Amino acid sequence: xxxxxxxxxxxxxxxxxxxxxxxxxxxxxxxxxxxxxxxxxxxxxxxxxxxxxxxxxxxxxxxxxxxxxxxxxxxxxxxxxxxxxxxxxxxxxxxxxxxxxxxxxxxxxxxxxxxxxxxxxxxxxxxxxxxxxxxxxxxxxxxxxxxxxxxxxxxxxxxxxxxxxxxxxxxxxxxxxxxxxxxxxxxxxxxxxxxxxxxxxxxxxxxxxxxxxxxxxxxxxxxxxxxxxxxxxxxxxxxxxxxxxxxxxxxxxxxxxxxxxxxxxxxxxxxxxxxxxxxxxxxx
Length: 284
Hints:
With about 280 residues, the protein is mainly α. The chain is about 55% helix and about 0% strand. The chain is built from 11 helices and no strands. The longest helix is centred in the C-terminal third of the chain and has 24 residues. The radius of gyration is 22 Å and the shape is globular. The two termini are about 20 Å apart.
């Protein structure tokens, strides 16, 4: 059961639930990074039109998020539009009840995410130049930005869960306006190290071209796939992080998750600073 399913059914998310969601988002983000990496940077997509209007990328985002808004995507507490919400239509479907686990707040992280992506990640991710794959490129960009946003906005749930688990430690810091103290309390270096090791490893393996590696393991003498592979038999895949023949730069993966962890904690702190003890219900 994911976070939104839990709150829709009146259950309180747990730290285990939020971590499970974040781990699943790792897979989605790395897949999306690999998809974007096959295209060149195509920087002309991000330049304003000659008439001074929106860039092709911005126009794509407005068009896509207009459709998403109509179908209620941005009512979900883990999605945030990159388009000005005042320029988006009202949903045409009935609202879902996400309960009152999260308290009312106004948080935005989209400008930070766009700066991170275009200034730091894209130069590491995509080769310079243009390849004319403009439609695919802006679509890949939009998918990545939405995933980055969702990863960061999940921090609201993480913060609320931790507040309810450790109220005696969090409330004094919240009431004192001690953002640095909250950041220190939220930071778990051992957990962050595990995330970085795990995601960097995924980037190494997922970006590696593995042609021929499994041939002798998964095929029979006639070259047909063996459906029952002995998974206890080691494949002994050798991964060289300096290998130039890969589909994804693992350093780009490191840049992504190092910064997403920081931005997620920023969301957690900003959310906690909006909390008021009088809003806190007695939890069962």
